[in-house]
Amino acid sequence: MAEPKTSDRRIRSPDDTLAIRAVDVRIRRGTAWGGRGGREIVHGVSFEVRRGTVTGLIGPSGCGKTTLMRAIVGIQRGVTGELRVLGQEACTADLNRRVGYATQSASVYHDLTVAENLRYFMTLATQGTPSPLEIIRGAEHVTASVGLAPESRTQVGRLSGGQRGRVSLAAAFIGGRELLVLDEPTVGLDPVLRRELWDGFHQMADRGLTLLISSHVMDEAARCDRLLLLREGQLIADETPDALLRLTGAGDLDRAFLRLVEPRPAPRQAAAPADGPHPLPGADGGGTAHATNPGAPAVSDPAPPPGGRPARPDRPDRRHRGEGRRVPLNLPRTTATALRVIRQMRRDPRTILLVLALPPALLVLLQAIFANSPTAFDRAGAGLLGVFPLMTMFFLTSVAMLRERRSGTLERLMTTPIGRGDLLTGYGVAFGLLAVAQAAITTTTAVALLHLRIAGPLLMLGLLAVLAALFGTALGLLTSAFANSEFQAVQFLPPVLLPQFLLCGILVPPDQMNSVLDTLSMLMPMTYVVDALNRISTTPGVSMLVVRDALVIAACTLVALTLAAATLRRQSP
Question: Which of 341, 483, 343 is nearest to 413 (CA)?
Fold first, then answer.
């Protein structure tokens, strides 16, 4: 027996503010930032979603459901027309605190436990400085709401596919204070759990929350208050389930949908325009399902706004463009991100070996190679104390951020209140602490065990090694934006770092290079790393040239971080 729908239980005033209003919305995928190029996926849809209702976005795979949902939560580029969410432009940053979003894939961290994931997202969604008890209780509440309390201490990667989907759904509940946009949230769940979740959806709607839920399963469509049916990017129906059955004369919603997409000839059916949606079978005068409902918004060929040019929600007013972004760092969110990254690194033994064990092992190998020439080891060893951390941190951070982008977690983060500065600073702090540990172990190995001769202060030697590692971190964050796979991230290692290594002065001193190569070496940040470390190893004290080199490395790090932040745009093609 189907549960009563929200529209049957309680309807507030018809003048209630709309949760979503779309007028002639068109979306092109693959557009450039200037709005050029791409292919139109959604073709001029118009609809309204009222607050406190459960609306189903129904249609076959590839019809544009996910693209439309991404536009609603403000992360889809190439949107034209009027698209307002909770009374604001769809891409307004303030909506991050009011709208929750769950992607089709389980966009959560598989190497964290259920509780750790939800506590992290709870910290991002909470304003001010949340107390630890508040975060823990909030995470426990949403964990119980999706039936995962017994698995709260289990790593997400060890859960079943359906359980991972529930963790992602719980994360969306945390951010959705007024609107939840859920992309096929019940895929892979058993019938009992699906029924429990739908009961929960309607309970949320009873409390005033609005839900937009996509699906291509028609038995779930019957549980919605209203249905938006998409086919090939066009809205072919906007009706309640019962009204849709009456209009099509079908016995169930499966047949109703088939009659909409493959209409049979009817004696009284008028011809539909060539570019319009399919007519309803048996409806007087043709038209679409939503056109027969006087209470539904008109969605067929709406008039353009005055001036003949549609509004562009992907280009909001400049007052809103940076709202919620160009602000000082949020300490709780930055700290939570740093702690999250540190937990992830601790659970990856390969990362620990790569960062903490490989550089000292390479130094031991280098000393064995130069066993008969101690001066050669002294000349190369100091510079390698900075080169090894730079290379390893570059590789590590480029892969880590690429995983963030490819797994969908970065897309989820862009729908939360976290700022780009919070995210990158959190990464920088986490990898900076790792760089300190790496520098301490590598320097101790080189000086105490391998007897590398250092004339200057060891503290400055360690600081320069940390600075080199931070530059590698920033460079890795930047290059991850241009890779589509971990294999491509590895491919960036030779073109980005190998020329710097060849010209930095470890293999051949710069004064022995020809003038062209000498000039090129001065443009390579790694050259300043090696120069500073060599000066520390051969000269007592800290000279102004060392300070100059350190400032150049710091400036290059800031430039790389700034460029990396520019790649973390909220909207994507």
Answer: 341
Provide the sign of the torsion angle of the four alpha carbons 259, 262, 266, 270, taken in this order: positive
pLDDT digits (tens, 9 = 90+) for 229-249: 999 999 999 999 999 999 888
Side-chain-side CA neighbours of residue 75 (13 Å): 24
CA distance 206 to 209: 7
What is the C-alpha to C-alpha distance for residues 323 and 330, in angstroms, rounded to an integer?
Answer: 14
Q: What are phi and psi of 441, to 5 degrees?
A: -70, -45
Q: What is the mean pLDDT of the chain?
A: 82
Q: Which residue type sits at 91?
A: C
pTM: 0.81
3-state helix, strand and coil shares in percent for the chain, rounded to the nearest 5: 55, 10, 35
* Cα–Cα separations (whole angstroms), residue 510 to 93, 101, 515: 50, 54, 9
- CA distances to 178, 186, 262, 385 from 204, in Å: 10, 16, 35, 57
Task: Evaluate whether 416 touches 125 at the Cβ level (below 8 Å).
Answer: yes
CA dist 391 and 381 (Å) reads 15
Nearest CA-CA partner of 152 in 165, 139, 169, 135: 139
Quote the CA–CA distance of 500 and 494 in Å, as a whole number: 10
Per-residue H/E/C for 189-249? CCHHHHHHHHHHHHHHHHCCCEEEEEECCHHHHCCCCEEEEEECCEEEEEECHHHHHHHHC
